Amino acid sequence: MRGAPALIVGLVALAWLSLGLWSASPWQRWLDHGGWADTAWLAEICRALPQGERLAPALAYATAWLLMITAMMLPTTLPLLAIFRRIVAARSDAAVLVAALLAGYAAAWLGFGVVAYGIDVGVREAATSGWLLAHGWVVGAVVIGVAGAFQFSALKYRCLERCRSPFGFVNARWRGQRPLAESLQLGIAHGLFCVGCCWALMLVTFVVGMGNVGWMLIVAAAMAAEKNLRWGARLRTPFGAALLLWAAGIVVANA
Length: 255
Fold this sequence. Notes:
Number of strands: 0
Oligomer: single chain
Structural class: mainly alpha
Helix content: over 70%
């Protein structure tokens, strides 16, 4: 258990490094949703499988999304993990319980990723012709505008407060009677509250592209500051205003 913080830091660093190398490689288009239709070695393999033409982009998306969750969201769980590790430190299965908590957290975000992927595919299929094809910028303006407006919503801050109070969160849910199941449920519950307060900012990555590491770092820093810093809740106004101005700028530039 003593090596857990170093392991987490290593995983986060590896995820950022992988995203950076991927975005600078010839396969960068697989991080860009618009490039999923391009042919590549993965697409060639997938053509031989049932529904293979859809499997290739799904696999590329799943890999990128998993890396993004590790890079951007795992650091925000450190306060929760620190408390949980102290609670279970004396147990022989402590490492397994921490792993179960992380698995539950990842499952919650992967569930959101599946929904986001479905919406993204639907939007892109709708944009192959007609008005939306000629006005694709509208999608970006709407997503960024929604993210900005959500910064001022009560729902965001109800979820955020749960994420900012890790001791109370664990204390209310951990009984130690079914350790493995409780650890997994704890991770899922925390992940769902995390999705509840961060989903809109995460959708901004669909606009800027998962291969834009610079923008991802900015979004990750914003979410980490909101969740982990004492004065993080005060950032709602500047973040929200900046996103709304960005959305307005896109409209003015393209209208």
